[in-house]
Amino acid sequence: MERLVGKYCKIVTKEPGENRASVVTGTLEDVDYKDGFVLVDSDQGLGCLRIDTIIAIKPKSRVKNALGNTPKHKKSLKKDNEGMVGIGTLIVFIAMILIAAVAASVLITTSENLQQRARSVGTQTIHEVSSGMCIDEIAGLTDENRTKVEYLAMLVRPRAGSREIDLEQITVSVAILDDLWTLKFNESVMSPVNLDNKSVFETPVSSDNISIRENFTIAGNLSNISFGVIIVHDYDNSVMNTHGLNNGDRIYLIINVSALAPIDGGLPVRESMSGKIQPEYGASAVYEITSPAVLPTRVVDLW
Questions:
Q1: Distance (Å, whole) CA 30 – CA 33
Q2: What is the rounded radius of gyration, in angstroms, for the C-alpha atoms of the chain?
Q3: Which of 6, 18, 77, 157 lies 20 to 30 Å from 180 when distance is taken between CA atoms?
Q4: Contacts of 293 (CB under 8 A, 6+ apart)
């Protein structure tokens, strides 16, 4: 091969284990028998080939083009088909990454929405379970002949842990003598509890409403569509100022039974009356009472 140094040659090589040979064309620059390499200057640059992989080597003339220049020869890839497969695999890999990113984004967004909904539902559930009203007692006022109950006084309070309850949003349902009534709060018929040693049913109305005169009782100013309020305990004046019932507050709801049963003039003896007190949110207070067979006093305990 020393004779071919400096000449343009065609070199055929074959790597061990390969079925196909490859061809390199270029100028043979040097032969190193000691290290087993030959130095070749080809169109792709200066490089080395192992002597033990060379099958054949022979001089080759350079072919000039129409302009008299020697064209540059490029070494062809040995496995073009494998390169195409690699590009296809890369495209598939990138597509899988994009799909995984989109799926992850959808899962993250969905999980955040579910978490927010779960937190909201949990908060509302806690409010529904812990909020609401309780009835501590129900008393009735009979007529002078003690034959029927004309007025009811229900002592109510918020449940333990309940949020503030708006009296204006409370509805009281009353089922009496085959009739069903729904009562709403009349803010003009509200007063603190009477502290002059008189009955709750004799609590006077203190109002600027010209349709209600001074010293008229709350019970006497109720119709079949409203209930009145007598404030028993209101430490922070929330009931009086904002009509808000919070923890520790106690009030009487006054109902005119005679207006709900005008034919009978009230709830006769041995007759039943039921209903519930429903706040804006939370548990309602359900009640059911029966007028005693004998009414020994004007004020009777019904609950």
A1: 10
A2: 50
A3: 157
A4: 269, 270
